[in-house]
User: Which sequence fits this backbone?
C-alpha cells in the first residue's frame, strides 16, 4: 500500500472514529422514544440549522450537482440550486415555528404521520398508515442514493470493488444511527455540515487560483461554449426552455414535505431561535451551492484531458479534483466531506422511517401495549430492514445519485408538502381531504415518473404537488365541516405565543 493511500486511510479512520464515538456517547442518554427521535426537543439553532441542511443535501450536493454542472454547464444545475435556495428560506420562514408549536400542541407529536393523525383527529389511523407507506417507499429510494455515494467514493479513492465499498459505507452509517438516535444524528450532522461547507468553498477557491485566477478561470470555461456558463442557453442556437426552468425551480417545492427536514424544526428547543437558524441555514445553502457549481464547471477544465462524461462518472468530478489538487492527507479529510454528505442524509432518513413505522404502525396496529423498550427495538429493526432494501437498489454501479434523489424528493414534496401547509394555515382542511390528498399526490408522482414526452417531461413534483393541493381543498370543501374539537384545537394553536 502506497504512502498516498495510507495517508487517506488515516484521514478516513480519524473522521469515522469521531463519528462513531459521538453515536456511542449519545446512546447512553436515551430514556424513551422522544429522546431517540427528537432529542427531547433540545437542539440549539446552530446544530439545528446545520443538521437540517446537511441531512437535506446528501451526497447529491458534492457529487450529483457538480456532476450535472460538469456534464451540461449551468443551465439545469443553476436553476435547480436557485429553486432549492428559495425553498430553503420559505420553509424556515413559513413552516418551522408553526410546525414546532402545533406538534407540541397536538398531543406532542414526534413524527409527521402522528402530527397528521392528531391534527385531524383520525381515530382510524388511516392517514398514519398511508403516510408511513409513502415514507418507507420514498426513503428507501433516497437512502439508496446515499449508499451509492459512499460506494462510489470508496471505489474511486481506494479501489475497493463497488459491492464491497457499498457494504462498508452501509455498516458505518448503521452503527451510529442505531446506537445514538436523533442527538447522535444532529451532532454528527453539525460536524459533517461544517466539513461539507469547508470542502466545497476551499476547493472552488483553490480551483479558480489553479486556473490562473477567477477571471482567467471564467474565460477558460467560456471557451467551452456559451451553453456552459449561461443558464438560459441549452446548446448552439437553443434556449433552456420555460418547461426546463419550471422543472428545475420545482425542486424548491420539495422542502415543505421532507420529513427528515421537518423533524429538525420539531426538535428545536425554542421558537425564538428559528430566525437565527433560518439565517444560518440560508447562508450555508447559498455559499455551498456556489461552491458545488464552481467545482463542477472548473473541474471540466482542471481535469482535462480526463473525461468523466460516460457511465455516470461525472458524479465523481469532486473526488477527482480533490485527488489531483491536494496532498493525500488533506484530500482524505476533504473526501470525508462526501462521506459526511451521504451519511448525514442516510442516517436522518433511516431514523425518520424507523420512527414513522414504530410510532405509527407498530404501536397503533401491531402492539398497542408496546413498552418504550419494545418501541426502540422495533425502531432499530426497521432501520436495518430499510437499509437492506436500499442496499439492493444501490447494487447497480451505474446508479445515478441525482436521479434517485430527484425521484424521492418529488415523492415527499408532492405527498406531504401541500398537506403540511394546509394543516398549518387552513382550519377548513378535513380528515377525508387530507387522506385523499395524500393518496392522489403520491400516486401522481409514481405514475408521472413512468411517462415521458411533451408535458410529461415536466418534473413530477409539480403535477404531484398541484394534485395533492387541489384534491385536499376540493374534498375538504365537499366534506362535512371539521369536528368542533379539531377547529377548537386549531384556533388555540393560532393564539399560542412564541
Assistant:
Amino acid at each position: 500500500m502506497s504512502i498516498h493511500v495510507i495517508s487517506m486511510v488515516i484521514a478516513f479512520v480519524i473522521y469515522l472514529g469521531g463519528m462513531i464515538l459521538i453515536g456511542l456517547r449519545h446512546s447512553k442518554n436515551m430514556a424513551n422514544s422522544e429522546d431517540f427521535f427528537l432529542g427531547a426537543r433540545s437542539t440549539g439553532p446552530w446544530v439545528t440549522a446545520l443538521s437540517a441542511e446537511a441531512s437535506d443535501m446528501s451526497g447529491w450536493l458534492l457529487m450529483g450537482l457538480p456532476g450535472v454542472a460538469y456534464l451540461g454547464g449551468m443551465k439545469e444545475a443553476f436553476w435547480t440550486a436557485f429553486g432549492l435556495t428559495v425553498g430553503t428560506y420559505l420553509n424556515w420562514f413559513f413552516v418551522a415555528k408553526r410546525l414546532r408549536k402545533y406538534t407540541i400542541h397536538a398531543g406532542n407529536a414526534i413524527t409527521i404521520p402522528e402530527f397528521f393523525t392528531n391534527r385531524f383527529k383520525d381515530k382510524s389511523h388511516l392517514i398514519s398508515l398511508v403516510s408511513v407507506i409513502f415514507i418507507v417507499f420514498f426513503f428507501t429510494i433516497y437512502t439508496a442514493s446515499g449508499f451509492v455515494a459512499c460506494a462510489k467514493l470508496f471505489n474511486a479513492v481506494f479501489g475497493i470493488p463497488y459491492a464491497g465499498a457499498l457494504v462498508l459505507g452501509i455498516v458505518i452509517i448503521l452503527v451510529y444511527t442505531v446506537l445514538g438516535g436523533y442527538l447522535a444524528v444532529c451532532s454528527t450532522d453539525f460536524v459533517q455540515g461544517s466539513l461539507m461547507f469547508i470542502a466545497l468553498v476551499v476547493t472552488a477557491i483553490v480551483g479558480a487560483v489553479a486556473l490562473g485566477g477567477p477571471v482567467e478561470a471564467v474565460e477558460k470555461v467560456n471557451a467551452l461554449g456559451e451553453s456552459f456558463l449561461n443558464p438560459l442557453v441549452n446548446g448552439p442556437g437553443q434556449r433552456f426552455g420555460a418547461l426546463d426552468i419550471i422543472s428545475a425551480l420545482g425542486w424548491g417545492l420539495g422542502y415543505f414535505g421532507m420529513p427528515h427536514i421537518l423533524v429538525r424544526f420539531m426538535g428545536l428547543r425554542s421558537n425564538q431561535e428559528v430566525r437565527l437558524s433560518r439565517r444560518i441555514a440560508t447562508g450555508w445553502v447559498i455559499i455551498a451551492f456556489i461552491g458545488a457549481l464552481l467545482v463542477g464547471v472548473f473541474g471540466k477544465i482542471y481535469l482535462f484531458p480526463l473525461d468523466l462524461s460516460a457511465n455516470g462518472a461525472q458524479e465523481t468530478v469532486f473526488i477527482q479534483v480533490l485527488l489531483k489538487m491536494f496532498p493525500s492527507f488533506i484530500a482524505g479529510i476533504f473526501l470525508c466531506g462526501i462521506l459526511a454528505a451521504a451519511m448525514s442524509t442516510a442516517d436522518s432518513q433511516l431514523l425518520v422511517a424507523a420512527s414513522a413505522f414504530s410510532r405509527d404502525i407498530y404501536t397503533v396496529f401491531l402492539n398497542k401495549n408496546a413498552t418504550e423498550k419494545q418501541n426502540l427495538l422495533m425502531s432499530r429493526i426497521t432501520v436495518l430492514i430499510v437499509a437492506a432494501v436500499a442496499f439492493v437498489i444501490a447494487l447497480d454501479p451505474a446508479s445515478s445519485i441525482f436521479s434517485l434523489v430527484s425521484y424521492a424528493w418529488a415523492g415527499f414534496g408532492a405527498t406531504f408538502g401541500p398537506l403540511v401547509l394546509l394543516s398549518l394555515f387552513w382550519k377548513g382542511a378535513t380528515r377525508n381531504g387530507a387522506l385523499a390528498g395524500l393518496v392522489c399526490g403520491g400516486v401522481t408522482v409514481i405514475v408521472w415518473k413512468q411517462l415521458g414526452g411533451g408535458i410529461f417531461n415536466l418534473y413530477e413534483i409539480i403535477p404531484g404537488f398541484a394534485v395533492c393541493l387541489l384534491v385536499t381543498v376540493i374534498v375538504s370543501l365537499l366534506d362535512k365541516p371539521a369536528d368542533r374539537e379539531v377547529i377548537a384545537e386549531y384556533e388555540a394553536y393560532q393564539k399560542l405565543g412564541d
Observations:
- The chain has one domain: 3-399.
- Confidence is low (pLDDT under 50) at residues 30-40.
- The longest helix spans residues 162-210.
- The domain at 3-399 is CATH 1.20.1730.10 (Sodium/glucose cotransporter).
